[in-house]
Design a protein that fits this description.
Blueprint (H helix, E strand, L loop, with lengths): L9 H12 L3 H6 L1 H23 L10 H4 L19 E7 L10 E7 L2 E8 L4 H13 L1 H8 L2 H7 L21 H4 L4 E8 L7 H36 L3
Antiparallel strand pairs: 1-2, 2-3, 3-4
Helix pairs in contact: 1-3, 3-9, 5-9, 7-9
Length: 239
């Protein structure tokens, strides 16, 4: 790995724990210097290190920290919960050419309760979800091999997501991959101990799990790549 990370300080987890108790603007502004020095800046270092490691196994997903890291400010416009701040810090890595939230990508977060590790598609739009379902249907043997890999299951777990109660319209009921086709999201999610964030080992653990997920995420993005290539002549004016 060309970059390193020594771990967050205990002050980082304390800040996030205290923020959960005092989730208001006055408290945050008073303690903002702690947030910047103990949470925000180390998160930037860790995200850069994860990206540097990613060049070895998934270079197309590398995202610069300023784009990868989510703001700590919550969007409360459509939420009953009006607390202004998240109580975790998170970052995602995605294919810039395929879209941040509609294509498959990697994600991790740090809170005072856990280190979360994720990968996959969490909020696909209807058309992209349809394309992915068709891709799984037409390539179900390869899909099954990928998601049932023993090392993947041990290190990242099974594919998750809400499932439709019935097969989606237009898909055969008895298809062997129907359990996957019925999913409305398709992602991995694991929670590791929060104490891991205090050690250099957090970089190793994130990298190991992302490396295992990478072949599945590439599979998920294949139909989007194919669609992008079909649209390219129209977008550039070439026929």
């Amino acid at each position: 790995m060309s970059a390193s990370f020594q771990g967050f300080s205990k002050d980082a987890l304390k800040f996030l724990r205290d923020l959960e108790k005092h989730n208001n603007r006055d408290w945050f502004e008073e303690h903002k210097p702690v947030y910047v020095s103990k949470v925000k800046e180390p998160m930037e270092t860790l995200t850069a290190a994860v990206g540097a490691a990613m060049t070895a196994y998934a270079p197309e997903f590398v995202t610069e920290p300023k784009k990868a890291i989510y703001r700590i400010y919550r969007d409360t416009r459509f939420s009953k919960d009006k607390t202004p701040y998240k109580t975790h810090v998170g970052a995602s890595f995605w294919r810039n050419d395929l879209g941040k939230h509609t294509s498959a990508g990697f994600y991790f977060e740090v809170s005072h309760q856990h280190v979360g590790v994720a990968g996959g598609v969490y909020m696909p739009d209807p058309e992209n979800l349809r394309l992915l379902r068709v891709h799984i249907m037409e390539n179900h043997q390869r899909w099954t091999r990928l998601v049932s890999d023993k090392k993947l299951l041990a290190g990242a777990g099974e594919i998750r997501g809400e499932r439709l109660s019935r097969p989606p319209k237009g898909f055969p009921c008895e298809h062997p991959a129907m359990e996957s086709i019925r999913l409305k999201q398709m992602y991995f999610w694991q929670e590791l101990p929060a104490a891991l964030a205090l050690t250099p080992g957090v970089l190793k653990e994130l990298t190991a799990r992302f490396r295992l997920m990478a072949p599945v995420l590439r599979f998920m993005n294949e139909p989007l790549e194919a669609m992008k290539k079909k649209r390219a002549p129209l977008e550039t004016g070439w026929i």
